[in-house]
Design brief:
Layout: E1 3-5, E2 27-28, E3 33-38, E4 44-48, H1 59-62, H2 67-71, H3 73-84, E5 94-98, E6 101-110, E7 113-120, H4 128-143, H5 148-163, E8 167-173, E9 179-186, E10 197-198, H6 205-213, E11 216-219, E12 227-232, H7 252-261, E13 265-273, E14 276-285, H8 293-333, H9 341-349, H10 353-356, E15 362-367, E16 370-375, H11 380-393, E17 398-401, H12 412-417, E18 420-425, E19 433-438, E20 443-448, E21 455-458, E22 461-464, E23 470-475, H13 484-537, H14 539-553, H15 560-591, E24 597-600, H16 601-615, E25 621-624, E26 629-632, H17 634-650, E27 659-663, E28 679-686, H18 718-728, E29 732-738, E30 742-750
Parallel strand pairs: 25-27
Antiparallel strand pairs: 1-12, 2-12, 3-4, 3-7, 4-12, 5-6, 6-7, 8-9, 8-14, 9-10, 11-13, 13-14, 15-16, 15-19, 17-18, 18-19, 20-23, 21-22, 24-26, 27-28, 28-30, 29-30
Helix pairs in contact: 4-5, 4-8, 5-8, 8-13, 13-15, 14-15, 15-18, 16-17, 17-18
Length: about 750
Amino acid sequence: MKIRDIVNREIVNLTNCEQEPIHIPGSIQPHGFLLGLKSGTFIIDYCSENVSDYISKSHADLLGKGFQEIFGNDAQQALENYISKDRMLSSLLLKVELEKQLFVCTVHLSDGIYILEAEPSSEEHKKANEVYDHTTQFLTYLNGSNTMKDLCQLVAEGTREVTGYDRVMIYRFDEHYNGEVFAESCREDLEPFLGLHYPHTDIPAQARELYLKNLLRLITDIDYSPVPIYTLDDQEGKNLDLSLSILRSTSPIHVKYLQNMGVGATLTISLIHKNKLWGLIACHHYSKKNLSPDIRLAAQLQGHFITSQIDLRQSSEEYEVSRKVNLAYDRLSMFELSVDGEEKFKELVSHPEILNICNATGVALIIDEEVYSHGHVPSEKDILFLTDFLAEKSNNTSFHTNKLLDILPDHPELSKQTPGVIFHSLDIEGINCIIWFRPETKTEVNWAGDPSKSIIKDKNGLSPRNSFELWKEVVNYSSKNWLQPELDTAAAYSYSLQRQISLILVAKEEEKYRKLSELLSETNAELENINWISSHDLQEPLRKIQLISSMLINEEELSPSVGKMMNKLNLSAERMQALLSDLLKFNKVKYNTEPFVEVDVSALIQELKEEFQENYDFDIQFEIGELPKLTGERFMLRQLFSNIIRNSIKYRSLDKSPMIKISSPESIDWEDQEAEMEYHYLIFEDNGIGFDQKYSKSVFNIFTRLHGNSEYTGSGMGLALCKKIMQHHKGNIKAESQEGVGTKIFLAFPKIA
């Protein structure tokens, strides 16, 4: 049987420590031994080298053997009962006799391996009743503390009393995982660390990740020699994840760091809040020190007390802030804007509660690029610049920061003047918005050594810093942090303000459209009056012009040139009279109030066919299909069909007889039609000269003519009148044409039940 150790021998230094696989060191600390048992069979697959220090057998004797074979049936039964009742990693530790010696064990499952860590049971530690007495006393301390800081201080004192460590610190992380000693209890002869800050590099990311998984970390002797773990060499790359192990060996970089601090032993308890590492209970001793598992659990209970109280204590501290800003919000909500906005906007930003709702020192309201500001604010030019920048950055939503320099590094003066901002857009374009401001608050941070020198270079290469002397840093370009109640209240008021401004803008638009509507009505009335005069009152003078010109033409003594001019005058008067007649027809459609009746389209088309064939001295062919009955005004429909047929005759090809086809298909592919509406369709098709399809829409515009007066007579209103009649009937009209081929006119009439 071949065995090998699984020690991770990769060289670890400060250039690669961020990637160090600290969960698989392949070794443990020597204050206990480790067994790795295959789940199901309980075959010993892993064993620490120091097992022979605690029992009479070596790791080579144990590997590949069954747990029961080595330790007997009673030990096997105790282990199986413990696992079956799911007591692993609970406060109920496994106490079992192994070779007539009592051991206290922790057990957990890792990748199909039960990891059993055994430590000798000792009677030298505090009795259980003493531990629980301390815990009971601590509960009374909880009831007597109001703030988070008071609570943490009591926890530090209580933990030190339970564990006996020289120093106990409550270590709290900021958003970047820089740490602060938030509370501390230590021996009187030791230099206090309270208030000191430590850079995030002191606890790298993978270490923080392990603190989330394993809530308790113990080092009994900083100068220990790691004990290798052995396994059967039966597969390549075999390893053991010790993330949850209490005996797991520590990173050499961390050991060096603690040695530089002069620490001899440590206990670390994780403080988890909302699935995130909030902080640590860090216990330091300046000589070797071990704790029994019972005492460790009692100490871990202190951490549970803190994490259970974080929300409550933070809520208590924020309650007063929340109460005040909500009171300001309630008062401010009573202020209403009006359509005459400018004065009201000025009044709003001067309202004292608009600053109190988020404890700001200045506010700017930007409406249609007009700036209304109050308090400690940047210049108007800078405000407009910030408006554009923050609108783009937030995608026209909201944004806040207490250090504007982080996002505007090229504008230090602006960032220094008002580094704290809350921005809320008041429309989707970001044109209207509100911004609250806070001034710079200089902060002095006490670091345990220069954070920029957390890594030092000496003759041995790179190593953790060994200087922890007080180093002070003055933090510029930042304001006091915005608290969550302040952000919530600012957001709530912004939404309320957005609604008010939207209503004002809508009211302004309505007023503008009302005035435009009145102006349009007046203009239309004037145009109608002009139309009436031009199309009615001008008829009489035109008739006189025609009469006089006709009489003069008949005079014998007129010279040929004068007669020619009189003929032109007479023709011009006729065209003018036709135009005025068409204008009268066009206007009549608008004011027609005749009721709709059922109209037999076949009969109406037959009348028109006979009329046109009588009035023209050339052959006109008609091909008429089965046509529907429509609901509409008969006179207008007659005018509609007459205009379409007349156009087909007027624009006929001179080399062939005009052919006019009239049909009524069941359906037509028409994009503009309403899907839920049913229609009657008519198609008028001719074989005339046609026109370019690009004019298919413009031919329905009033006075549109595609051919000169010399070629074809007319006012250019025929198809415009057709479109007007179709609109009157809630229908649609369109044209398709090809030069030299002919034209199709499509009509769609809604079916009226």
